[in-house]
Design brief:
single chain, 100 residues, Alpha-Beta Plaits, 4-stranded antiparallel β-sheet, two-stranded antiparallel sheet, 6 strands
Amino acid sequence: MKTVPLCLVTVIAESVLKERLVHDLRSVGARGYTLTDAEGEGSRQRRVGEILGANIRIESIVSPEVADRLLQLISNEYFDRFAVIAYLSTVSVIRGEKYV
C-alpha cells in the first residue's frame, strides 16, 4: 500500500486557548484537526478539572512546512504565558492528498 510521509503536530494546552489554537491551525494552512480533553501533570502541576483548569489536546496531520509555521507560532505566542506543550511526529498516511 502506498503511504505518504507527513507530520503529526500535537499540542496540549489550557482549554481556555481552544478557539485561539483552532484559529492558528487554520491560519497556517492545516486542513483539519482532532480535539480531545486531556488530563495529566507537568512542570505547572496537575490540571484535571475546571477548578484548576482543564486541558485540551489538538492533533493535526500537516506538511512539514505547515508544521514548522505552526510550531513557530505556538512557540512565539504561548510558551511564555500559558501551560502549553507541542511536539512533532513523522507519520505515514494513506490518502496523503487530504492533508496538504
